[in-house]
Amino acid sequence: MRRPSDRSWGAPTYGARFVSHLRERLVRAPNGPGNTGHSSKMNRLAETAERVPVLIAGGSLVGLSASLFLGRLEIGHLLVEKHPRTSHHPRGRGNNIRTMELYRTAGVESAIREAAAVLADNHGIMQTPSLAGEEHNWLFRDIDPGGKAARISPSAWCLCSQNDLEPVLLKAAQDLGGDLRFGTELLSFEQDADGVTAVILDRRTEARSTVRADYLIAADGPRSPVREALGIGQSGHGELFHNVSITFRAKRLADVVGDRRFIACYLTNPEADGALLPVDNQEQWVFHAPWHPERGEALEEFTDERCAQHIRTAIGMPDLEVEITGKAPWHAAERVADTYGFGRVFLAGDSAHE
User: What mean pLDDT do residues 323-327 have?
Assistant: First the structure.
């Protein structure tokens, strides 16, 4: 079984790095490299455009973190995100110590830990052929064995799912005066020596408008349209494996798990392997099921019935009542952009590397 990564997010690291760099360049007001030319149409649009120092494309963890750090430095900015709201699917749960240190600096660490309180006592990664049996193996039990990290940092690792973390960042960024527009999509952009002119779309009203910014941060994900528009290539091994992340409700599963409060449990039944992750340690859970599109397997084949049966077999409870509440594809890949920016446009997060 290929193990899905519950990776430690570095979103605030990217945000802080870019904000520090942008602040220096905004103060120095350079002409900047990478003049890509400016069409006459864009020149006319720029004359009537809404003006902001920084435009952020993408409102997930990296974009929201960039907004938060810009707000702390009182740098005006506009964030656009095409989806109508923050993520509702649990994922990207591991926040490492440096991440939490930066969130502490931004004044949101306590709010994040409050949002993550339900999983505060979950530790370690477990592996077993069946949760119904006694056999199991802890791959590790403690994220900070011996408390070494605690002696050098006021912060600690935090298990907070993306769907719980993003609303905290959104509120904090808005409280600092950030202009964050969900349901708004970046359609196109052009840059010149002095800035970036972008066209954005309000997906609710279908109204288009123009924004003129000194800089553009592309926090628009692994299939970044901004990176593609810049013609920036990628290198690396490419796709590694694929999973379907399944959210489900199972009232009796907590009785089987018992006091084994894991971060994730790798289930190794050869007939139905995968990874089980708790959401509330009671009824709400996530299961990562292997998916093989390279063999022609379609996402539509993962029906509720198939997913529920796979979960029962993997856990070892054929009579477990399983209610499927959501499904999302997840792709593990190893790619890095050939350059992290061009001119006045910077790549951040998954647009820069996966």
Answer: 97
